Amino acid sequence: xxxxxxxxxxxxxxxxxxxxxxxxxxxxxxxxxxxxxxxxxxxxxxxxxxxxxxxxxxxxxxxxxxxxxxxxxxxxxxxxxxxxxxxxxxxxxxxxxxxxxxxxxxxxxxxxxxxxxxxxxxxxxxxxxxxxxxxxxxxxxxxxxxxxxxxxxxxxxxxxxxxxxxxxxxxxxxxxxxxxxxxxxxxxxxxxxxxxxxxxxxxxxxxxxxxxxxxxxxxxxxxxxxxxxxxxxxxxxxxxxxxx
Length: 244
Prior knowledge:
Layout (H helix, E strand, L loop, with lengths): L13 H14 L12 H8 L3 H13 L3 E3 L5 E3 L4 H14 L2 H24 L2 H19 L13 H14 L4 H9 L1 H15 L3 H19 L3 H19 L2
C-alpha cells in the first residue's frame, strides 16, 4: 500500500480519513516501527489535505501512541512494545544470567516463525535487503579486528541483530514485525553476550557468522523447512557454546 490522495467523504472529518490511512499504512507494514514519517509538507501533499487537518490527525495518532514526536521536529512510528517489555528485560538480563537462556528460548519461538514466513512471503526487495545485511555482517567479520566498530558505527552484534530484523520485516506479518522491532534492543543485548563468549575462539565465531548465510540461502530459495532448520542449528550452536 502507498499514500493516496484523500477525497473528503460526506459528513466525515478530513482528519478522520487521514488517521484511517496512516493507521492502515502502519498495519500493513508500509510504515514500520522506528520509521520516520515524511515531513508535514510532503505528507500533506501526498494525501492532498490541508496542513491543519494533517496536524489534527497526527496529534490524535500521537495520543493513541501509534506515533511519537521526534526531537527537532517530525514524527516516527512508535515502538509500542519496547518501553513496556524489552527495555526492562534488557536491564534484568544484565543482572541475572538465567535470563540469557530464557531470551534464547524466546528467540527460538519467534524467529522460527519469522524465518518460515519470510521464506514463503519474502519479495525480491526483501531478499535484497536481507542480502545487504548479510554482506555488511560478513564484511565486518573479515576485517583484521572484527570487534572494532565497523563502517557506519555498527558493531558485529549490531549487524547480526539487524540481519535478523530484516528477516522479521520480510514476514509481512505486522504483529510479528512490531514485536520483533519492539524487542530489538533486548535481542541485540543477547547477541552481544554471545559475541563476548566467542571473542577468543575465532574458528567458532567464523562458523557462527557463516550460519547466517545458510539461513539467507534458505529464504532466498523460498524453502521454509530449510530456513527453520538453519535457524535451529544457529541457535542451538549458540546455546551449546554459551555453556563452555
